[in-house]
């Protein structure tokens, strides 16, 4: 038996129940993992509310964790018992002290990366890597707009984009978050509750707009994001923390200046073992170099997963949120 968070009915944070469950032995190609740290991500909220389908009820949420291999199934040669590993992606089930994972979705951790860092940065860090270097390859001198700049992904995007030589503009909800974003590479934090974001972006860019917008907010920001783009700019819509993004007529992209719109999913960029290892290695390297600071804003025991979700949904949280076992 092991402790885990189970969802028996989709809904609010109260649906996250702390229970004891049976853990099966690892089958062929699988690993039994004892977790120490679990990453909390907004996609976990989507599964809990039913926006994304988990497949069946009850289920254990979570897509990111780090820990130690304690047993391997038949045919596993890539990892061994006692080895530290981490992962980001399916199958669901990260909110547990022990779990079974496919061996080929685990990434061995270098000595320079702690379990806590890995659980805070695997999903968010690889997301930042993919967004900044594959979805739109940010170049020195470009101007970028990052919504939710003080959030878990937002802080990493700010740091990494600044490292790449971009001018970074970010939206935040409070003066405290503005200072946090500024300390992490955001040149121009915008208080979206007090300022007109589109007007401010135009003023900061001499009326031209930004080359790319990274929008994880969705319903509240998508049209504003389009209005912030320069001619031939790209809107990268990769989340919907405020709700489903509105529909856009194709003609709006032409009217805005031959704009581009994309809706990437990290999991399409780390679908193969090679892609996964390459993305993880890129993240580990910038952390090792000190170019990416992993900020953990909240640490909570696994049993308090509901508290973590409430903080995330209320936008009170900053940086990464970690559940500990």
From TrEMBL:
Enoyl reductase (ER) domain: residues covered: 11-323
SUPFAM superfamilies attached to this UniProt entry: GroES-like, NAD(P)-binding Rossmann-fold domains
Domain of life the protein comes from: Bacteria
Gene3D superfamilies from the UniProt entry: Medium-chain alcohol dehydrogenases, catalytic domain, NAD(P)-binding Rossmann-like Domain
A Pfam family annotated for this UniProt entry: ADH_zinc_N
Keyword annotations from UniProtKB, A to Z: NADP, Oxidoreductase
Protein name stated in the entry: Quinone oxidoreductase
């Amino acid at each position: 038996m092991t402790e885990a968070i189970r969802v028996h009915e989709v809904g609010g944070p109260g649906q996250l129940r702390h229970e004891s469950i049976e853990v099966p032995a690892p089958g062929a190609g699988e690993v039994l993992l004892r977790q120490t740290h679990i990453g909390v991500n907004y996609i976990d909220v989507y599964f809990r509310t039913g926006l994304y389908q988990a497949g069946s009820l009850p289920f254990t949420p979570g897509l990111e964790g780090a820990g130690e291999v304690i047993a391997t199934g038949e045919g596993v040669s890539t990892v061994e018992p006692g080895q530290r590993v981490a992962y980001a992606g399916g199958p669901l089930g990260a909110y547990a002290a022990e779990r079974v994972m496919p061996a080929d979705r685990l990434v061995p951790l270098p000595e320079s990366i702690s379990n806590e860092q890995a659980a805070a940065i695997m999903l968010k860090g690889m997301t930042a890597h993919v967004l900044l270097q594959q979805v739109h390859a940010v170049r020195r001198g470009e101007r970028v707009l990052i919504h939710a700049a003080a959030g878990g992904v937002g802080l990493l995007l700010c740091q990494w984009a600044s490292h790449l030589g971009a001018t970074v503009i970010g939206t935040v909800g409070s003066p405290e978050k503005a200072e946090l974003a500024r300390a992490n590479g955001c040149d121009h934090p915008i208080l979206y509750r007090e300022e007109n974001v589109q007007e401010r972006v135009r003023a900061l860019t001499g009326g031209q707009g930004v080359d790319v917008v990274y929008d994880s907010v969705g319903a509240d920001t998508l049209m504003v994001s389009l209005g912030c783009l320069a001619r031939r700019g790209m809107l990268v819509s990769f989340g919907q923390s405020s709700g489903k993004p509105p529909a856009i007529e194709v003609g709006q992209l032409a009217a805005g200046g031959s704009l581009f719109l994309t809706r990437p999913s990290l999991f399409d960029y780390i679908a193969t073992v090679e892609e996964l290892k390459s993305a993880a290695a890129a993240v580990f390297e910038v952390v090792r170099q000190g170019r990416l600071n992993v900020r953990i804003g909240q640490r909570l025991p696994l049993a308090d997963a509901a508290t973590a979700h409430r903080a995330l949904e209320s936008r009170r949280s900053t940086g990464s949120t970690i559940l500990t076992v």
